[in-house]
Amino acid sequence: MARYKVLRGVANNLAHSFASPMNYFGRDYTMCHLIRRSKLTGQRVLRVELMSHMLGPVELLTKPIVDACAHYCADFGRLVTENGSALDMISTATIEVTIRHGRTVERAPKTLHGHATVRATIVDDRGREYAGVAIEPYECAGLRDGAA
Length: 148
Description:
Elements: H1 7-19, E1 24-25, E2 28-29, H2 30-41, E3 45-49, E4 54-56, H3 63-82, E5 90-105, E6 111-124, E7 129-141
Antiparallel strand pairs: 1-2, 3-4, 3-5, 5-6, 6-7
């Protein structure tokens, strides 16, 4: 029988997994792609709707970021069912990543510092919210020829 109780753990696992250095796409950490793109565009919050596969804002989206988000959207159903719940018990599921920029070290090669706060939220069909939060510091290579 599917259980609601495990949704808190699913949200926590999502947040920690997305913020993790194991989240690696396009020859760099997904968070480093996001930190560079955020620095370039001034946008600091990425929102991923896991059930509808909607991402935004568009200014933050590059191929590696889209690929990482698509992977999490595609894997969400498996994560829910393997933990003992069911997708039809979930109304919405989102990941929201907020970037806080740190210092930029000017020596060669240029290094960007930032913190990624990832909040994964699942709302069940009864309206109850389950959330997980992860905060990770990152030290990333700087902007490459004006591109992120």
